[in-house]
Amino acid sequence: MKGIVRRNRAPSPRLRAFARSPIFLIVPACACLLLAAFAGPVTAQSLPTAPITTAGGRLTIGGDASASISPSDEYYFDYSDYNYNLLRQVRADAAAALRLGNRLALLGDLRVEGPVGKGPWTLRPYALFARIRPWPQRAFDVQAGLIPPVFGAFSRRAYGPDNPLIGFPLAYQYLTSLRPDALPASADDLLRMRGRGWLTRYPVGSTTADHGVPLIDGLHYETGVEVHAGNDPIEVSAAVTAGSMSAPRVTGAGSGAQVSGRFAYRPAPWLALGVSAARGIFVSSSVTDALGAAAQQSSNDQRALGFDAECSHGYWLVRTEGVLSSWRLPALRAPFLDAPLRAFGVDVEGRYRIRPGLYAALRVDHLGFSRVAGSAGELPWDAPVRRIEAGAGYSLQRNILMKIAYQYNWRDSEYNRTSGLVSAQLLFWF
Amino acid sequence: MPGVLLLLIAGGRDSPRAAPAAAAVRGRVEIRNPVASPEPRPGIGDLGVDPAYQPSVDTRRAVVYLETAPQPAFEEGGEMHATMRQEHETFVPHVLAIRVGTVVDFPNGDPFFHNVFSLSKTRPFDLGRYARGHSKAIRFDEPGIVRVFCDIHSHMSAFILVFAHRFFAVTDDQGRYRIDRVPPGTYTMTAWYEGVARQSRTFTVPDEGGTVDVDFSLR
Using CB atoms, which residue from B45, B51, B131 is nearest to A270? Predict the structure, then answer.
């Protein structure tokens, strides 16, 4: 027996390296995509293709579920504020709309998500609000509760088939080194954290290392009230919510309010344009309270301007979105942060439908930062990042979509400069 | 389901006789559990809703057709056209029955884009986005069932049933149908509803022709 039974051996380092490499995913994912694309469309419509309607048509329930997989993002380009990689997650949403007459509707979205592999799972209401229409025949709505953000365009279409790729635009996802609960005392403190948004530490406020925030939090809705008026070709929206775009909060207690607005214009069916603006309190009250009068007198807000455009015709869809954000922080110690910290994110995204059920997509993305003067010279306050993501999607069934994408990132910093990631996603919705 | 339509063969169970006196087959299809009009997905990300949108999809129609048909029925040809419009975020008609070789036009009557497509094995197609006043057409050369959707408005859906012969009908809003000029013979007729219910009946058209009643009750 001794000669027959062998102990299981640990995989060799070479095998482990191969398993971590992109090729390990690229080959099977490409094979699946090609097989699906050229095997012909699948006709079976065995899964639900439409939302469930009940209670005499008053209650509509929809949902979606997705699983994304990619190699480990060791350089934290795709980390989110959940402390896990957006390219390695499983998520399911159940959304419902309950119509109570022609003036009132209640809407909610319950979300469960977690990382692929070890990590925390969360179950939370993603949206929960009342939609009130005071005059049923007029295009004027008031929404209150945990509401969709008014600013920009991507937040309201971040999930599901509306995102032709798997990754998010940098402005909505990439973690800068700023934190609402911890502040750099000087420009040197800030510059030391360049390119380290996934884990920053500052001397003022919370001294625990934690992640920074993106320009716009694309993963949370905002708490507050918004009004929306108009229909094609002109729509106007305004909202008062808690927190700021980078750091929306569940309650306004102690955090101040954000005012945001959006103007959308559709001059032709093939073109939609939008501009947005927002201003909200960024720095947590716990920090400003601790700093006392000096912080109370200085600005601690986030301001943002945005534009977005969508152009489509035939098999083409092109979108672009830009966000200029500035944060004003208390100037505490020399070298002072006496000028607003600015960041500009812009992306251009295109999708082309190659044949029924099959498309190709590309997104080019840039995130830049204003310069600040530290003891060692002048530098962008965070490391600029560029990203290209190219991919394809194939509908196995009308509401089952398989995506594959390759993403390459550049970061202008001393370490972790580049990263190439292949990812795949399976998405089902109804 | 498409396989049912592909199984069309020439001749009834009893071959039609030499001196036919064609009959009209008529009846009523009762739908006991009608499908609800499709609703849009919960608009969680919407900042408001369009007050003009009133979903009104006509889901009362069934399609009745002969499973088998006389040989000459397969040889009747000619250029045929049909239309499926896009109006108020619905396809009109919601159910369209056509013969093989028919060209279906898809005009857009809404002041915004639609993107009509189908992944059905019978006839996959994608018309892309186009605006009001424009139309695109697709020719259907294979019998089967084609499920039609809009890529922009997920609540828009329709059916196109493609037959190899002319012995089929779509019911009216009372559930009634009529198929003319059916030669004598014994046939199996099927009533199909929204892909969720179907029922078959066997009947005989006598040599002297006349009118034959065949009713259905779909659960």
Answer: B131
Chain A residues lying within 8 Å of B132, measured CB to CB: 269
Are B71 and B177 within one domain? yes
A96's tokens? 């419902």
Cα–Cα distance, A280 to A283 (Å, whole number)? 9
Report how far residue A14's alpha carbon sits from residue A193's, in angstroms, rounded to the nearest whole number: 34
Average pLDDT of the residues in B146-155: 94
Which residues of B fall within a CB distance of 8 Å from A157? 45
Q: Residue B167: is its pLDDT beyond 60?
A: yes
Closest residue to A148, CB basis, from B36, B47, B124:
B47
Burial class (CB in 10 A: 0-12, 13-18, 19+), A399: buried
Q: Which residues of chain A have pLDDT under 50?
A: 1-45
Omega before residue B93 within 30° of 0, cis? yes
Instruction: For residue B171, give the CATH number of its domain.
Output: 2.60.40.10
ipTM of the complex: 0.86
Task: Give yes or no for a cis peptide into A335 (omega within 30° of 0).
Answer: yes
Give the range of the structural domain holding residue B118, as residue numbers without chain letter.
79-164
Query: How many CB atoms sit inside 10 A of residue B135's CB?
Result: 14
For residue A295, the model assigns a pLDDT of: 63
Say how many domains are in chain B.
2
User: How many Cβ pairs within 8 Å bridge chains A and B?
Assistant: 137
At A173 the three-state DSSP class reads: helix
Interface of A with B in 123-162 (CB under 8 A): 126-127, 131, 133, 136-141, 143, 148, 150, 155-157
pLDDT mean across residues, chain B: 88
**Which pTM value belongs to this model?**
0.86
Does the residue B54 lie in any domain? Answer: no
The class level of CATH for A59-429 reads: mainly beta
Would the CB atoms of B157 and A49 count as touching at under 8 Å?
A: yes
- Domain positions in chain A are 59-429
Residue B121's CB: how many other CB atoms inside 10 A? 16
| pLDDT, position A27 | 46
Element (H, E) at A170: helix A170-173
Q: Residue B125: closest CA among chain A residues belongs to which residue?
A: A356
Distance CA A275, CA A67 (A): 33
Residue A100 burial by Cβ neighbours in a 10 Å radius (0-12, 13-18, 19+): exposed
